[in-house]
Amino acid sequence: MKEISPKEVEHMLSDGADMNIIDVREAEEVAEGKIPGAVNIPLGLIEFRKQDLDRSKEYVLVCRSGGRSGRATEYLEGQGYQVVNMTGGMLAWEGKTE
To answer: Are 86 and 61 in contact (CB under 8 A)?
Structure first.
């Protein structure tokens, strides 16, 4: 499983990188703050929403601490998607939130 640190994501965003970030937390968790531009698809809905994802793009998956996003990363990777797990999740995120 490919992994990326929150600092790496923050630097890439501040450098203007076009990143596809999926936050797999529940809606009430996301309401407390998410990485700007992240799309919320709760872990339980990943299986049903995967057809909305473009297999030619890479996605960074985020959750609270890295566990749920790790499971989502493994699942989507097994389905042929290009995915990366953000280690430490939002607990380790020091960048801006919306």
So the answer is: yes
- pLDDT 10s digits, 81-94: 999 999 999 999 99
Quick check: is 27 catalytic? no
Answer for the pair 64, 92: CB distance below 8 angstroms, yes or no.
no
Please report where in the chains the tokens 């999926």 appear, as a residue. Answer: 22
For residue 33, give the H/E element and its range: none
Catalytic residue among 22, 63, 72, 90: 63
At 13, the amino acid letter reads L
**What mean pLDDT is predicted for residues 50-65?**
97
Distance, in Å, from the CA atom of 85 to the CA atom of 4, rounded to the nearest integer, reads: 6
